[in-house]
Structures are given as structure tokens and as C-alpha cells.
Design goal:
The protein is an alpha+beta fold. Helix content is about 60%, strand content about 20%. The chain has 3 helices and 4 strands, in the order ααββαββ. A 4-stranded antiparallel β-sheet has the order 1-2-4-3, covered by helices on one side. Strand 1 and strand 2 form a beta hairpin. The longest helix has about 90 residues. Keywords: Membrane, Transmembrane, Transmembrane helix.
Length: about 190
């Protein structure tokens, strides 16, 4: 029986009285609040633990995505010269296609420009388009430049003929000039 005496000596301390306080309204509110906050605290701790554990998964996912982005970026950078070459070929094909479709008009303009050239004028560069033709040439004297200008004006195939950049070539005493003309549209 000595063991039974030891159990009776230990006393439980309860700050909230069981009978009287638990039956009052404020006591019930206090008990409900304490138990509700205990549940909220446990749920908050579970959310924090879940966020901490998911952080490792998100870090691994972020690293994988960064590596994938870098691989795709390197692929795009390595294909950049091919893309530039491809676009250049496309532009050239468009120019060629435009020329094929309008070669009769361009050839007619070129034939007119060449046929009205007086003796003593030599071409350095001719750029012919659908709407405009530009010529860089040299002449022995200003009389030939004037004659060429008058000849092109009389051809009735060009309008807005502009003479510019007249300069003297010191090496051979010839005159360099540039001539630009708009091709008349045929109706």
C-alpha cells in the first residue's frame, strides 16, 4: 500500500476550474478560442513545413528550366548565321522574281539609256529599277553631258531627269556625273 500513498500525494494543478468556469459563457468562449487557435497554429506549422519541403523541389525545377532555356538559347545563337543567309537568299530571290516579271520594262529602259548615249560618254555604273534608273558616267566635255540630258528628255520614256554630282577627274581631265530619271508609267 505504500505505492498508493505516493499517487495521492501528487496533485494536479488546473487554473481553469472545471465545473463553474466551463459552464459560463466567457468560459466556453475562452475554451473555444484556445482550442481554435491550437488548430490554426497546427495548420500554419503544416503549411510552413510543406513550403519548406516544396522549396527543394522548386529549386530543382528552376535549375532544370534554366538549363533548358540555356540549351535553346545556344541553339538559336548557333543558327543565327544560317537565318541571316536564308533571309539574304530570300531577298535575292524576291529581287530576281521582280526582275523576271518586269524584265521587258527594265530592258526597254536600259536600251533607251544606252541608245541615246552620245559618243564621248562612258558608263561607270547603271542601276535600273521599275520606277527609276540612275547612271554614274564620265564624259569628255560638258557638251556631251548636255547632249545626253537632252536626248533622254526627248525620248519620252523618262520624266524628272536630274543631273547631279558633276566633278572633274584630275587624272584624265574628264567629267564625272550622276544622272537619275524616273521611268514613265505606261497607260
Amino acid at each position: 500500500m505504500p505505492a498508493a500513498k505516493k499517487k495521492s500525494k501528487s496533485k494536479l494543478i488546473n487554473l481553469v476550474p472545471e465545473e463553474g468556469f466551463a459552464s459560463t459563457t466567457s468560459g466556453r468562449i475562452l475554451l473555444w478560442t484556445l482550442s481554435t487557435f491550437r488548430v490554426i497554429l497546427i495548420i500554419t506549422e503544416l503549411v510552413v513545413i510543406g513550403a519548406f519541403i516544396s522549396r527543394f523541389w522548386l529549386d530543382a525545377k528552376n535549375t532544370d528550366l534554366t538549363e533548358q532555356v540555356n540549351e535553346v538559347k545556344n541553339t538559336i545563337v548557333s543558327l543565327e548565321p544560317f537565318e541571316e543567309n536564308f533571309k539574304d537568299v530570300q531577298n535575292r530571290l524576291q529581287i530576281f522574281d521582280s526582275y523576271i516579271q518586269n524584265k521587258d520594262k527594265i530592258n526597254s529602259s536600259l536600251k533607251t539609256v544606252v541608245s541615246y548615249k552620245p559618243q564621248g560618254v562612258s558608263f561607270q555604273e547603271i542601276n535600273a529599277g521599275l520606277d527609276q534608273i540612275s547612271i554614274n558616267a564620265t564624259a569628255v566635255s560638258e557638251i556631251q553631258i548636255q547632249q545626253y540630258y537632252v536626248n533622254l528628255k526627248a525620248s519620252n520614256k523618262f520624266e524628272n531627269i536630274r543631273l547631279s554630282n558633276i566633278s572633274i577627274n584630275k587624272e584624265n581631265s574628264s567629267l564625272n556625273f550622276a544622272l537619275t530619271a524616273d521611268v514613265k508609267t505606261e497607260i
